[in-house]
Design brief:
6-stranded mixed sheet
Amino acid sequence: MAEVQFRFRDDEAVGDPGVTVDSFGAQSNAAAVRLEPGDEARDLLPHLARLRLIEINFPSFGDGRGYTAARVLREAGYTGELRAVGDVLVDQIGFMRRCGFDAFAPEVPLDPVDAQAALDRFADVYQPAADGRVPIWAKRHPEVQGG
């Protein structure tokens, strides 16, 4: 497994490897799980309080199911570490952060300068997301609530 290259959390990193979703249910002490593209993130919702780490595997940069899994978990209230692992490209990390990822363990290390540039690329956003950034329309019209 690749080492965590970028982490945007103040707590201690979870060193335990994530168990599969199938074996997670049978392990009452597991605090880390690894979601593969065919796994259903909603299956973890009843267990979010005990999870400290959810790794979401991207076996191919073109497989976007991990974005949906991250969004589902964050919208359900998951506050633990959400780590993107696998074929994570520098062009994706800004969008992954918006979906709720706060740690990255790419198979191929990313250049830190390029990664920061990708994270800083868009000063404003158009819709609310898991990262909590205020959409530009709300900045322009603070009297409007919701959407």
